[in-house]
Design a protein that fits this description.
Order of helices and strands: EEEEEE
Number of strands: 6
Helix content: under 10%
Radius of gyration: 13 Å
Strand order of the largest sheet: 3-4-5-6
């Protein structure tokens, strides 16, 4: 099982570890239910204030700053653990 780790500023929950405390060393990102470590991810993207992950079953997860609804969960509340992005259809394009 691959575990995802994060560290640094956590003002908006962007580390995904269930709290808003910054960390100077690696800590595991939690799963959506906040009881296990995040796994089953095959793509991840991280920015300064939020992060995104796509799971092997096609779910898109997001956590961190959400003041403008950028996490896509029909909310503007910052999230310190991953939440599912509410999507109708995802189309993945591959450029050859």
């Amino acid at each position: 099982m691959v575990v995802f780790w994060a560290w640094g500023d956590n003002t908006y929950g962007q580390l995904g570890n269930g709290n808003f405390e910054s960390s100077q060393g690696p800590i595991p990102v939690l799963a959506v239910d906040a009881t296990k470590k995040l796994s089953g991810v095959f793509k991840i993207a991280a920015g300064k204030y939020h992060a995104l992950a796509m799971t092997s079953d096609g779910a898109v997860l997001a956590w961190g700053l959400n003041d403008n609804g950028q996490l896509g969960n029909n909310s503007t509340t910052n999230q310190n653990v991953p939440v599912k992005v509410l999507v109708v259809n995802i189309v993945v394009l591959t450029v050859l």
